[in-house]
Design brief:
Layout (H helix, E strand, L loop, with lengths): L17 E5 L16 H15 L3 E5 L16 H11 L3 E3 L6 H8 L6 E3 L7 H4 L3 H9 L3 E4 L21 E3 L1 H15 L5 E5 L4 H11 L5 E4 L4 H7 L14 H14 L2 E3 L3 E5 L8 E5 L8 E5 L1 H12 L3 E5 L12 H13 L2 E5 L1 H9 L8 E2 L3 H9 L4 H4 L5
Parallel strand pairs: 1-2, 1-5, 2-4, 3-4, 5-6, 7-8, 7-13, 8-9, 13-14, 14-15
Antiparallel strand pairs: 10-11, 10-12
Helix pairs in contact: 7-13, 8-9, 10-11
This protein binds adenosine-5'-diphosphate and magnesium ion.
The site of adenosine-5'-diphosphate (ADP) has 20 residues, from strand 12, helix 12 and helix 13.
Length: 397
């Protein structure tokens, strides 16, 4: 899918217009109701500030958590309005509904450069049901629709797809960056193009492997899914996660890589643990020597070196999926080595996937990467080349 021709906020005149801006304010909270990580809100500021400077009238909307189609005070976006007011240095008025009287009044009476926030979109079941009437009412609040919530673009909801039927629809700066960073890497990569795939299961990543195998020069497989490949090669993998119904698929993938003449790397050693637990007894063993009753929870040192060596000369790296259970310190070394190798390679580096993004952040490499996608599931779909309904629905240039 090519989204490079989609209109963005700079392609339209927003001056004095009421703009419905779909953001991703789905932030985490602590038990007292305080926002514990404001990253998602902070990332939306570029588009919000642009619209303020252009004297638009800004109507923000987002989902938060899973209220299952019913109003739930615990999932109100009020704390987000408070945080936004603080950051912007002026009041962001909070509607106490989504399409009701409060939302209509607030949006109708906005002054130039003013901002208001609608209540949690998912207080209505019609949002996730992509209900036409609901989308129409949402659209009625504004003159223009801007989507900057990349993380929900893989879902056809009223606020991501339905609303585009009724308004000129463009993307904000966040989505523009996602489209250009990931789009360029996939369609016009600086070579050699290396993809590193890991994470838990092969079955989650079949689409990505199938797409990328046609584009890359080197394919590196680590993480939990490597054990299915190792098992397909005849190695015994102990109690490692291994999808026995995917062995033929793994063989097909390896045959295809060979046929295409691309370099295909899987672990030659692994750090194995006795149990699936953060402080289980652990040791590094060669790939053909995983003892019965032990499970692979990270790549080994030899593998980390081999992968790092391959990454050294890369022009473009697309990485999805940690090399092991990187949430646990004892099994984070492999993921750390790969992050370091990518950071040092000077390659254009794209990180997709929610857990991968979290790992890169936690290990301290976030500012060394070219692009860390803000959408977990959406970034996977993008890398699969599967259509993202929220992007497809935007106007073309
Ligand atoms: P992403 O969200 O970036 O797409 P995934 O969800 O596919 O990544 O994979 C992340 C998960 O994979 C993590 O929870 C991690 O603990 C798990 N994982 C990685 N390696 C292994 C392994 N060897 N055994 C079990 N789980 C693993
Ligand atoms: Mg995940």
């Amino acid at each position: 899918m090519d989204y490079s021709n989609k209109k963005n906020v700079e392609d339209i005149n927003v001056q004095g217009k009421k703009v419905l801006l779909r953001c991703d304010f789905n932030v985490p909270f602590d038990a007292e109701g305080n926002i514990t990580d404001t990253k998602r809100i902070d990332e939306s500021m570029k588009t919000i500030n642009y619209l303020i400077n252009k004297n638009a009238k800004i109507i923000l909307c987002s989902h938060l958590g899973r209220p299952k189609g019913k109003p739930n005070p615990a999932l109100s976006l009020k704390p987000v309005a408070e945080y936004l007011s603080k950051v912007l240095g002026k009041e962001v008025k909070m509607a106490n509904d989504v399409i009701g009287e409060s939302a209509q009044n607030l949006s109708e009476n906005l002054n130039l450069g003013e901002v208001c926030l609608l209540e949690n979109l998912r207080f209505h079941s019609e949002e996730e049901g992509n209900n036409k009437e609901f989308a129409k009412k949402l659209a009625k609040l504004a003159d223009i629709y801007i989507n900057d919530a990349f993380g929900t673009c893989h879902r056809a909801h009223a606020s991501t797809v339905g609303v585009t039927e009724y308004l000129p629809s463009v993307c904000g700066f966040l989505i523009k960056k996602e489209i250009s960073a990931m789009g360029n890497a996939l369609t016009n990569p600086r070579r050699p193009f290396i993809s590193i795939l890991g994470g838990a299961k092969v079955s989650d990543k079949i689409g990505i492997i199938t797409n990328l195998i046609n584009k890359v020069d080197t394919l590196i497989i680590g993480g939990g899914m490597a054990y299915t490949f190792m098992n397909a090669l005849g190695y015994s993998v102990g109690t490692s996660i291994c999808e026995s119904d995917k062995l033929d698929l793994a063989k097909d993938i390896m045959a295809k890589a060979k046929e295409k003449g691309i370099k295909f790397l899987i672990p030659v050693d692994n750090k194995v643990g006795k149990e699936y637990s953060p402080d289980t007894e652990a040791k590094i063993v060669d790939a053909d020597k995983i003892p019965d009753g032990w499970m692979g929870l990270d790549i080994g040192t030899k593998t980390a070196n081999m992968f790092s060596e391959a990454i050294k000369g890369a022009g473009t790296v697309v990485w999805n999926g940690p090399m092991g259970v990187s949430e646990w310190e004892r099994f984070a070394d492999g993921t750390m080595s790969i992050a370091k190798a990518i950071a040092e390679s000077g390659a254009v580096s794209i990180i997709g996937g929610g857990d991968s993004a979290a790992a890169v952040q936690k290990l301290g490499f976030a500012d060394k990467m070219t692009h860390i996608s803000t959408g977990g599931g959406a970034s996977l779909k993008f890398l699969e080349d599967a259509p993202l309904p929220g992007l497809v629905a935007l106007d073309d240039k």
